[in-house]
Specification:
single chain, alpha+beta, three-stranded antiparallel β-sheet, about 40% helix
């Protein structure tokens, strides 16, 4: 009898989150298996998913987390979340904000002026009903149930393509050279 190792809890958690996010968006998702756990499978990936009848290969990787970003994320959540929700409710709209967080060591004071500038831009966009996009911040407003969402750019560039190129280049090159090489 052959026994295979199982996915790690981190892998399972990431895949459950991905599947749940896809299902919430109306996709039918089936976890077909984990090729890297089956020595007879030539793919060395974390999962094979069937999404609405199409097979997808899934590989996830950890990205090095900037320790100075942790303080920035905490402060952004404390500073913006209540304000954004209140503004969305006040104007009866949905607000989505994305930006690259300034970094600072946890023991230093945050750049309050940066966050106040973001709040003012959110307020102006909500009031005018127009999107506000530049290299510092992307603010999207739309009709709908009041809600506020924000996300952080992984690099100092609002373009997803450039964030992927800058933020994922090193981890993906490592995977290409070590993990994907045998599957070629």
């Amino acid at each position: 009898m052959t026994t295979y190792r199982q996915r790690s809890e981190l892998e399972e958690s990431a895949l459950r989150t991905l599947i749940a996010a896809l299902e919430v968006r109306g996709f039918n998702v089936v976890d077909v298996g984990c090729p890297e756990l089956d020595p007879s499978d030539p793919l060395n990936i974390d999962a094979r998913l069937n999404i609405d009848g199409d097979d997808w290969a899934v590989e996830h990787c950890r990205i090095v987390h900037d320790p100075e970003k942790i303080a920035a994320e905490r402060y952004a959540e404390e500073s913006l979340f209540a304000f954004g929700n209140q503004t969305a409710s006040e104007y009866g709209i949905r607000i989505m904000v994305g930006f690259y967080l300034p970094r600072w060591p946890e023991e230093q004071k945050p750049p309050i002026a940066f966050f106040e500038r973001i709040k003012e831009r959110i307020r102006v966009s909500a009031q005018s009903g127009t999107n506000d996009r530049d290299s510092e911040c992307q603010i999207y407003v739309s009709p709908g149930d009041p809600a506020f969402e924000f996300s952080f750019f992984s690099t100092d560039d609002p373009l997803i393509r450039n964030q992927l190129l800058k933020g994922l280049k090193v981890p993906l090159l490592k995977k290409q050279d070590k993990q994907f090489l045998p599957a070629r």
